[in-house]
């Protein structure tokens, strides 16, 4: 009788059986396809607080009833970063579990109405573009428009467009015309002066921009806090959003990768950097994000810091108690290497009279 657990016997069996693969290859996507993602996820107070706590997003309106009511909420709502991460996490099994480079995300938007714990999140994605990669014939490029919806009402709670490189089943022949040509690097053209706002209210950002106007100056500053990545942020947080990408939980597979280890979910890196930034401002409401890019991997032991540049401040918002500010945020590591960048539009509280 064959002992299937005998190491030599089992090794032979592993070599002969087929692997039931997860995820989809580039050839499985076609423009216009709509994918209904099966899992779904109920947004919970525990999940919300775990995400916010681990990424240092400590806005009291998302933690305390009195602070939430002062901002017009019935109770502490779901934080937009957790909502975004959960929306993307649910899509990973169908869209990007095969791996490939996350090329960017843009047009991240939320409704003005808050989202509360207990909301059941259902997610769908539409393929908006597929393209051949001339420089990497083993990959194709796919863009999706993803919408996270309230399962009960059908209301869109979070939407965005993201682009990934996706492995092909078979590489395609290319002429290499997509390869980047070597270019001479231009000398950086930095301003002569960097201005830091005096505080975190809307008027502080407005005044700093007025001071920089007409001068060779920029409103830009770095944030003191850093967050070193550990097993919770690298493995637990993505899995709690149903993000099954092997990059975040399979050390065996990742041991031969450039990082040599599992890496942080991009939305954890992003949310951590934004948490640092928000700690130096009086955030009223998140409006949206654009032109997001992830520049290199973040692994266990890396520390995430943040840098902010203020782009504009407009005296217009959903509440008279706030104005709208647009920022550019750059997350960087302990070696001062950028790991994430994106623009963010948020309503910032006006100074109380």
TrEMBL record:
<dbReference type="InterPro" id="IPR045672">
    <property type="entry name" value="MC_hydratase_acr"/>
</dbReference>
<dbReference type="GO" id="GO:0016829">
    <property type="term" value="F:lyase activity"/>
</dbReference>
<dbReference type="InterPro" id="IPR029069">
    <property type="entry name" value="HotDog_dom_sf"/>
</dbReference>
<feature type="region of interest" description="Disordered">
    <location>
        <begin position="167"/>
        <end position="191"/>
    </location>
</feature>
<feature type="compositionally biased region" description="Acidic residues">
    <location>
        <begin position="182"/>
        <end position="191"/>
    </location>
</feature>
<dbReference type="InterPro" id="IPR048274">
    <property type="entry name" value="MC_hydratase"/>
</dbReference>
<dbReference type="Pfam" id="PF19315">
    <property type="entry name" value="MC_hydratase"/>
</dbReference>
<protein>
    <submittedName>
        <fullName>L-erythro-3-methylmalyl-CoA dehydratase</fullName>
    </submittedName>
</protein>
<dbReference type="InterPro" id="IPR052342">
    <property type="entry name" value="MCH/BMMD"/>
</dbReference>
């Amino acid at each position: 009788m064959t002992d299937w657990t005998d190491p030599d016997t089992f090794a032979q069996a592993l070599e002969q059986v087929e692997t039931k693969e997860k995820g989809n290859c580039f050839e499985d996507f076609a423009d216009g396809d709509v994918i209904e993602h099966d899992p779904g996820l109920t947004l919970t107070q525990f999940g919300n607080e775990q995400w916010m706590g681990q990424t240092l997003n400590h806005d009291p309106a998302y933690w305390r009833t009195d602070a939430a009511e002062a901002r017009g909420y019935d109770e502490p709502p779901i934080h937009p970063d957790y909502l975004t991460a959960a929306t993307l996490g649910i899509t990973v099994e169908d869209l990007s579990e095969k791996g490939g480079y996350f090329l960017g995300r843009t047009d991240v938007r939320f409704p003005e109405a808050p989202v509360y714990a207990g909301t059941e999140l259902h997610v769908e994605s539409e393929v908006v573009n597929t393209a051949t990669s001339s420089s990497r014939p083993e990959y194709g490029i796919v863009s999706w428009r993803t919408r996270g919806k309230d399962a009960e009402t059908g209301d869109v709670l979070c939407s965005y467009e993201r682009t990934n490189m996706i492995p092909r089943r078979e590489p395609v022949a290319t002429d290499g015309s997509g390869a980047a040509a070597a270019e001479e690097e231009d000398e950086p053209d930095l301003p002569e002066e960097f201005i830091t706002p005096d505080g975190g209210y809307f008027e502080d950002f407005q005044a700093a921009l007025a001071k920089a106007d007409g001068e060779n100056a920029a409103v830009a500053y770095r944030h003191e806090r850093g967050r070193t990545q550990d097993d919770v942020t690298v493995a637990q947080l993505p899995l709690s959003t149903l993000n099954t990408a092997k990059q975040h939980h399979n050390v065996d597979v990742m041991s031969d990768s450039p990082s040599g280890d599992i890496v942080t979910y991009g939305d954890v890196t992003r949310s951590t950097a934004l948490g640092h930034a928000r700690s130096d401002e009086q955030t009223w409401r998140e409006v949206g994000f654009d032109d997001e890019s992830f520049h290199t991997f973040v692994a266990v032991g890396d520390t995430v810091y943040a840098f902010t540049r203020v782009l504009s401040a407009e005296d217009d918002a959903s509440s008279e108690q706030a104005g709208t500010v647009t920022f550019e945020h750059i997350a960087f590591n302990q070696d001062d290497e950028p790991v994430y960048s994106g623009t963010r539009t948020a309503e910032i509280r006006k100074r109380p009279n």
